[in-house]
Amino acid sequence: MAESRARTLDHVGLNVADLDAAERWYIDAFGYIRDLAVRLEAFELDIVMLVHPEGGDRLELLHRPGSAPGLRADTPPAAVLTEGFGHIAFDVEDVDGHFDRLVSLGARAVMSPRPSPEPGVRMAFVADPEGNLLELLDRRR
After folding, report:
1. Which pTM value belongs to this model?
2. Where would I find the VOC domain in this sequence (predicted)?
3. Which of 17, 40, 79, 116 could cross-link to 86 by cystine, CB 3.0-4.6 Å?
4. pLDDT digits over 62-101, tens only?
5. CA-CA distance, 70 to 42, in Å (whole number)?
């Protein structure tokens, strides 16, 4: 058996309709910075990799002309009726403050801040300007 190594999630890829707007929004909303931008001519695919300067987590934004919206569930319960990825979760220090700030930046309020089913955790949901569900969690309590 091979030696066990610690595993971490490297990044999440999010296909978007407006790459420039999505990049600006995620930078403003979560403090990401651009790590790199590339174009794969063979697929007409543009990629922007964002990285958080403190946490190191990465968000890959992808755009290809001709793309069409996929799952855009309005609520978390609706999202789990379709198999596949339903939302992205962000661990934040102040769920209430982040929720209000994201809504002021154009996010749609989906589920106001409240206790999570997980004991000691506070949570909320918003949808980014393109309708992708984002969960906010505070596990530091």
Report:
1. 0.88
2. 8-139
3. 79
4. 999 999 888 788 888 888 888 778 899 999 999 999 999 9
5. 23
